[in-house]
Amino acid sequence: MSLFRREITVCSLSSGSAGNATWVGDRHAGILIDCGLSTKKIFEGLQEKGLGDVPIDAVLITHEHSDHVGSAAVLARHLAKKRGPVPFYMTRSTFEAAHPNSRPDGLEAIEAGSPFRVRHLRVEPIPVPHDAADPVAYRIQIGDVSVGIITDLGKPTALVGQHMKHCDVLLLEFNHDEEMLMEGPYPLALKQRIRGSHGHLSNSQAQQLLSMGLGSRLKHLVLSHLSDENNSEGRALGAAFQTLREAGVPINQKEAATGQNREGGVTVQVARQRVGLPPFRVEAREW
Hints:
Blueprint: E1 4-14, E2 21-25, E3 30-33, H1 39-48, E4 58-60, H2 66-69, H3 72-83, E5 88-91, H4 92-97, E6 107-110, E7 116-118, E8 121-127, E9 136-142, E10 145-150, H5 158-164, E11 169-173, H6 178-183, H7 188-195, H8 203-213, E12 220-224, H9 233-246, E13 267-270, E14 280-286
Parallel strand pairs: 3-4, 4-5, 5-6, 10-11, 11-12, 12-13
Antiparallel strand pairs: 1-2, 1-14, 2-3, 7-8, 8-9, 9-10
Helix pairs in contact: 5-8, 8-9
């Protein structure tokens, strides 16, 4: 039995209400999770991060809101011309609820809890509570490395926490600070939607979920989907650091800029809306 090593790359191109897109893969296969940026910005972002030639074998959509699926139809046509038809995976209810101008060709209907494969990548859709038709988060397995993209949910759930325990890389929503939200300029109805059980995770809810799902495998934590108006990097990082320290987990801040994790512990970074993070890499093994 031989051991095959893969270098897994994760790159958040944008995360937040202005648009979401993340690439995960190796040099042999890759997937894009959400396409809330324009097609031009997606490819410019990949090029700027040194990933201009990476494969996109599939696009996974979490739910139908425009900041997650807005460019799907255009992206599908672009990929078909450039690389051949590419499947777009989403629940059927998500496809039906999406704006007609955003619906891509090449739908592959999925169900939460039913894993599927994109080449050698194993993908598991996870049900989440959000104000959408049938939203999911995703956990992607490549060799012995697992990457979780857990955003757009209104409350922690035990099922999501169980999936997080298996993650080496975790993109987790830290959307808002409750005090900033309630004292901010948003209309009351919007504030109530955001802080509702089908809205977005507050820093304190993200702490709770992180505590529930913190596993020994975690190497990279990316605080995601931060609100520009209702949160700050300092508050989100402070919440994450507190949870990790209370759990006795070393925080490896100095490695975050390089995208490496050579000294153990957990690197913690903040994903931004308009400036993507540098890609970071994790070695996977496969037998």
